[in-house]
Amino acid sequence: MYTHDKNIVTAGIPIAEAKRAIVFLHGRGSTAEDIISLNNHLKINDAALFAPQATNNSWYPYSFITPVEQNQPALDSALTIIKELVTEITSSGIPLDKIYFAGFSQGACLTLEYITRNATRYGGVVAFTGGLIGKEVNMGNYKGDFQQTPILITTGDPDAHVPVRRVEVSEGIIKKMNAKVNMKIYAGRAHTISQKEIELARQLIFDEV
Hints:
The protein is of the alpha/beta class. It is about 30% helix and about 20% strand. The radius of gyration is 15 Å and the shape is globular.
């Protein structure tokens, strides 16, 4: 088993000049460079962009719905990397309510797990195909108040890696924690990010400045 080295890819405008920051989290087998290039489609031009790189190109070794202990210590290490990055961003002068998150697949699961364990008012969150992590959802891990943070969760039905039921359960938990959640399920959509989802993310999350 493994932990993660801290390796952050950056793009966008310098943080000293930025109005907001976006943390991108890549999927299994992918790279920080790949997920941060998503901004070529999102076209956000007023933000500092950050994308951590997972060791072995994977945030944790097994499916997100296996028992959590099987994905340790990689999972806790991944959550720590994000927490440290968020601390660095706020220390640079960008408040939590101007920090956004966007993740795909394994990165979407990690995004939702991180924000729900650390619920507060963020700028906005996009989880392209993801749900909360664990064989069973451990409610003891989740605390805080999203204070109406806008959150978009999308998935395909069926999806080979992410059961729709877990997405729905995750939405319910996050909504109860006072988030403004939009969930979109696309029948027959492949395990990818579609143009429709990108447009929805821009409209619901990133155009809210």
